[in-house]
Prior knowledge:
- Belongs to the D-isomer specific 2-hydroxyacid dehydrogenase family.
- Residues 8-312 form the D-isomer specific 2-hydroxyacid dehydrogenase catalytic domain.
- Residues 112-286 form the D-isomer specific 2-hydroxyacid dehydrogenase NAD-binding domain.
- This protein has helices spanning 16-24, 39-45, 62-66, 86-91, 104-120, 122-130, 156-167, 181-187, 194-200, 220-224, 243-252, 290-310; strands spanning 7-10, 28-31, 51-54, 73-76, 95-97, 148-152, 171-175, 190-191, 203-206, 230-234, 255-260, 279-281.
- By secondary structure, it is an alpha/beta fold.
- It folds into two domains: 7-102 and 290-310, 3-Layer(aba) Sandwich (Rossmann fold); 104-281, Rossmann fold.
- A seven-stranded parallel beta sheet has the order 8-7-6-9-10-11-12, with helices on both faces. Strands 2-1-3-4-5 form a five-stranded parallel beta sheet.
- The two termini are 23 Å apart.
- Bound molecules: D-malate.
- The site of D-malate has 9 residues, from loops.
- Residues 55-56, 78-80, 103, 284, 286-287 line the site of D-malate.
Amino acid sequence: EPTMAPKVLISDSLSDAAVQIFRDRSIDVTFDPSLGKDKDRLAQVIGDYDGLAIRSATKVTEKLLAAAPNLKVVGRAGIGTDNIDKDAASRRGVIVMNTPYGNMITTAEHAIAMMFAVARQIPEANASTHAGKWEKSRFMGVELSGKTLGVIGAGNIGGIVCDRARALRMKVVAYDPFLSEERATQLQVEKVELDDLLKRADFITLHVPLTDQTKNILSAENIAKTKPGVRIVNCARGGLVDEEALAEALKSGHVAGAAFDVFATEPATASPLFNLPNVVVTPHLGAATTEAQENVALQVAEQMSDYLLTGA
Ligand code: MLT
């Protein structure tokens, strides 16, 4: 008797590569990226599916899971799983998987790009030059070489940022309770406490997930401990930095610049950081390269297929 092929729904904009993998593995796949932004319609259809493949737009809430009696696996094509209620999923026996490696280089590169952008005010200089102003004396920047970079979180992405920063001849200090002395030596970084990092860094970049421990890690109090003239880069998660407090510190001149790819509320159509001088912002593009999106789509489709077809 023929068994029914498992059914997978892709509700966010995943690379075509994922659709192809599911088909090659004889999985019945539906690709509808509009569903990630329409939770009511998603809740109406989710009951049919064994697997759900997502990026960050789809919110996997308790309510959605309650409407999904057949669901066995949620696959996140990317790293952060903070858009998934993992407790609710495990209570229902739904496996949550991510792809921790596919976009790490791409995200590290974005953080480095943002650091250059804020050091040299490239976006503002670009807008001014396009406007025909030729403001050569307005945009005085700073060098990265010889400066101290404080890396908060030296895991997969942070570790690559450390490596790239060392190649740029920066001195790197890292705060990460999970970083071993051995790994720190290998990365040629100095392992420090958070207060020490805040005091010493000319640039700070964050590479930690958003958890109860890391939420507001750059609070008003911690921002006040930073070195005057510091520039802060966040390509990790919104909510790690108190945006209101940072905006105040930028206005007072204590913080010289900020480059943010992620925001406490996304999609971010407003933020205390918007329209301040020396603030560079991008719309959560950290993982947005053709290479990374292909990697994460392939990985998530392979992992989900393995699980649905063999339980492995
Ligand atoms: C991630 O956690 O991998 C990123 O936020 C990726 C994304 O934007 O999908």
